[in-house]
Amino acid sequence: MTKISLVSKYLCALLFTMAILQVTSHVLLLCFSELTTTGVSQLSVDLYLFSSHISHQFPHGWLDISQALIDENFNALAILGTVELIPYLLIYAFLFKLFNYYQHGEIFTIANILCFKNIGKTLLFWILLNTFYPVLVSLFIRFTGLSDTLAIYLNFGSNEIFHLVSGLVIYVMAWVMAMAIELKQEQELVV
Hints:
Blueprint: H1 2-32, E1 34-35, E2 41-46, E3 51-56, H2 63-71, H3 76-103, H4 110-143, H5 158-190
Antiparallel strand pairs: 1-2, 2-3
Helix pairs in contact: 1-3, 3-4, 4-5
């Protein structure tokens, strides 16, 4: 049990660090980045012995709308990138919570199952976000009169299929774990 606790503790620290790095890099890119001709936001930091490069490129399905937003003088990173960050942060939070339970010796519990279900739901939500958020952005910009030429973008591709399969597999795993706990409880009552 101590091995599970120790590994879980390290994974919690890693997940927390990854979330902080992702949010920090996003904020740095929002505030200080330069836009390349291909629509990639990038930031380079050169200090005496230290050099770093941060960049953000939208997933394939959002490339067209991000380029269209840039062409219309909108900040695509602020409009699309900030919303794209939400599912990542939710998954980090649920994984952090799950490994925190493991760290405290709670391995097969309803709380763990809830974490798995929430990760699966987040992946399924991600499909809706990737598919319909560009449509909502386009419609909002057109209806508010900020642009008359921005096309309406609807996206569904391999990323969405991956999220669908992953979300369903994780959700079914949670369901199987719930059935196993229920079966174990029934067996304990019989004995």
